[in-house]
Amino acid sequence: MENTSLVYMTVGSKAEAMAIGNELVSHRLAACVNIIDQMNSIYRWDGDVQIDSEVVMIAKTTTSNVPELIEIVKANHSYECPCIVSVHITGGNPEFLNWIAAEVKK
After folding, report:
1. Residue 9's pLDDT is what?
2. How many independent structural domains does the chain possess?
3. pTM of the full predicted structure?
4. Which residues in the chain land under pLDDT 70?
5. Which parts of the chain fold into alpha helices (H)?
């Protein structure tokens, strides 16, 4: 079983999330991308507190694909500094983890 990761990202709209998610799955950089609409974020940017509605994306991929996935997301993202963080999966349903590895490029 290959090392697998979850990649957590936020974007400004559902349309943007759908476009990026489609790009990642179509290019076999993610086996699946979950899109969670209408998340509220409070953060500091350029010295001011911002409150915005965002969309969460969670991609399931192999750890070896994470660098290329990040580059594709950055190239297609509307934010100046997008949130893209990878978390290594240390356990889970072996059949599901094997499915992720089978669906992404080696």
Report:
1. 98
2. 1
3. 0.94
4. 1
5. 14-26, 66-76, 94-103
